[in-house]
Design a protein that fits this description.
single chain, mainly beta, 4-stranded antiparallel beta sheet
Length: 127
């Protein structure tokens, strides 16, 4: 069992920055990939970024590449999403999720491959 708790959402103007945090806990966290997804009203949940436990590999959606950075601090069991140059279209509820390490073989961007989810944190970017 893996538990995830997000924090750090809020309201920011376009062009601003936010850092989301995800506290990860559980017996076997070291075997999991952690990802960030987002869901805007009326839209499907979409992949944002993911990182392996060792941080050797990171993955990004094209829409956020160059603006968002995913990182982790294993000593603190934390995963972060630094979001810069935010746009109104980044407005959504952001979720942290965990998947078994085998997800890197073709499924890292598929929300259906993630086994555990946090409760979400709202990010609103005003124009």
């Amino acid at each position: 069992q893996v538990q995830l708790v997000e924090s750090g959402g809020g309201l920011v103007q376009a062009g601003g920055s936010l850092r989301l945090s995800c506290a990860v806990s559980g017996r076997t966290v070291s075997s999991y990939v952690t990802g960030w997804f987002r869901q805007a009203p009326g839209k499907e949940r979409e992949f944002v970024a993911a990182i392996t436990w060792s941080a050797d590999n990171t993955y990004y959606a094209d829409s956020v590449k160059g603006r968002f950075t995913i990182s982790r601090d294993n000593a603190k069991n934390m995963v972060y999403l630094q979001m810069n140059s935010l746009k109104p279209e980044d407005t959504a509820v952001y979720y942290c999720a965990a998947a078994r390490s085998t997800v890197v073989f073709g499924g890292v961007r598929d929300p259906g491959r993630y086994d555990y989810w946090g409760q979400g944190t709202q990010v609103t970017v005003s124009s």
